[in-house]
Specification:
By secondary structure, the chain is mainly β. The protein contains two helices and six strands.
Amino acid sequence: SSRRRHTRSSLVSWARRCVQETGIKDPHFEQFGHTRGYDHPWILEGKKDVQCSAYSPITGIEMEIRTKEPSVVIYTGNYLDGKLKGKSGCDYVQHYGFCMETQSVENSMNMTGFPSCILHPGETYNQKTSFSFILKQLTQT
């Protein structure tokens, strides 16, 4: 839709840390019936140093993203079916992928308050996104 929706109290609110699979497995979130998982844009607000991050408590790896782009799409390997093989022959099954794609706000040409995503002949597009990976110490359980 071409409307901006506030998501603070929904399954797609990532304003605070949350567990990815909590939302994916919730049968009440209608959008996951269409997308089979996360495939949604989030608008990045403010001028923070780190715009968004993801952390795995299993590996201890945190990914931080710094960008000037106004949004990030989070995608969770919704259509992986086990046919692709990963490291050590691991089957890539549904939700074994996780991607954070920085980009313009989808449909921004039809919305007010967002930079245009249209590039006209002769114009130059220049954008920078950086990814940092940090290995954090795992807690013993």
